[in-house]
Amino acid sequence: MSVSSEIDVLVLGGAGVDTVVYVPELPLPYADSHMVPSIEARAGQTGDFVALGVHALGLRTHHLDLLGADHHGDLVRALHRERGVALTEVPQPAGTKRAVNLVSPDGRRLSLYDSTRGHDGDRLPPETVRALASVSRHVHVCITQPCAHALPVLRGTGATVSTDLHDWDGANAYHERFAYEADVVFLSTAALADPERTMRRIADRGRAGVVVATAGAEGAYQLLDGELTHIPPVAPPAPVVDSNGAGDAFAAGYLFGRLTGEPPARCGLFGAVAGAYACTVPATRADVVSREELLGATSP
Predict the structure, then answer these.
(1) Which of 59, 68, 208, 289 could pair with 277 in a Cys bridge, judged by C-beta atoms 3.0 to 4.6 Å apart?
(2) Which residues lie below 8 Å from residue 286, measured CB to CB, with a gap of 6+?
(3) Spatial separation of the C-alpha atoms in residues 112 and 100, rounded to whole Å
């Protein structure tokens, strides 16, 4: 495989399809059946959204993951083709990853992931990972199982690394290899009893120079050089309809700031604006904030 140009952001993993179901409330009361406004499948899981996000902000982007030779894989391929995001796919015999997202009227989400779409032996080819990472400025690693085995390959490629631990509880050992191998670590405070303690443990035990914990409507927190600061929330530009993809959008906005040389506080502002925008987009659409919208919302 030959790569002809430099890549700003290489995204590993996280390609798949969500079936979005709008429900009257969460938790959903038990009943034999419920009438819902719509049930719609659309391409876009965490890696897809990060890739779309940084690409829309003008960064040269490449996405690498396993995909099945199935209808769901075709949806993912079409999404990347339509948005102009380069995609390298590895055959996935078990089929393309998929999930069902239950979305309540206030935008909260419950995701159900299909555990049959993969097996323990799944791998991203090391030679492919190395070739792409070696011509990339930065690699964002999703916490899917094949990406865990790709982490050692990234060492020595010259690329910085980020990851998103999502709603880690601070105890599950699976997440630790990602947390301690990344230069930039994103996570949510949702399942953390003591967010600051967890953030400091990540910084102390791993190589992260910055740890960012998103806290929904409360904004986010940034740990840098031992100092914890608050990133204020940003008012969404339209009514909140869905929180799906908000964390991915925050990561994309933050990475855009970091890779364009902005100071940490402004990187956090970019993340907050992108995350707020994502909350105004229905889960059935894979829309992300544009560079013009982001810079317009953050201009002095």
Answers:
(1) 289
(2) 42, 43, 44, 48, 49, 52, 79, 245
(3) 5
The CA distance from 207 to 118, in Å, is 29
222's tokens? 């940034």
217 occurs within a structural domain: no
92-120, pLDDT tens digit by residue?
Answer: 999 999 999 998 988 888 999 999 998 88
Over residues 61-70, the pLDDT tens digits come to 999 999 999 9
pLDDT by residue (tens digit) across 209-246? 999 999 998 999 999 999 999 999 999 999 988 888 89
List strand residue ranges (DSSP E) for 34-189, in order: 39-43, 61-67, 86-91, 97-103, 109-113, 136-141, 160-164, 184-188
Residue 108 placed within a domain: no
Query: Strand 210-214 to strand 220-224: parallel, antiparallel, or no bridges (unpaired)?
Result: antiparallel
Distance CA 213, CA 196 (A): 9
Please choose, from the candidates 125, 123, 129, 184, the residue with its C-alpha nearest in 3D space to the C-alpha of residue 155: 129
Token couple for 132? 């792409």
Range of the domain at 289: 7-13+45-93+123-164+234-298
- Residue 58 is assigned to a structural domain of this protein: yes
The structural domain count of the chain equals 1
How far is 225 from 194, CA to CA, in rounded Å? Answer: 19
Contact between 13 and 47 under an 8 Å Cβ cutoff? The reply is yes
- Separation of first and last alpha carbons in the chain: 44
Separation of alpha carbons 278 and 293, rounded Å = 12
What gap in Å lies between CA 116 and CA 139, rounded to an integer? 27
Domain presence at residue 228: no
DSSP label at residue 29: P
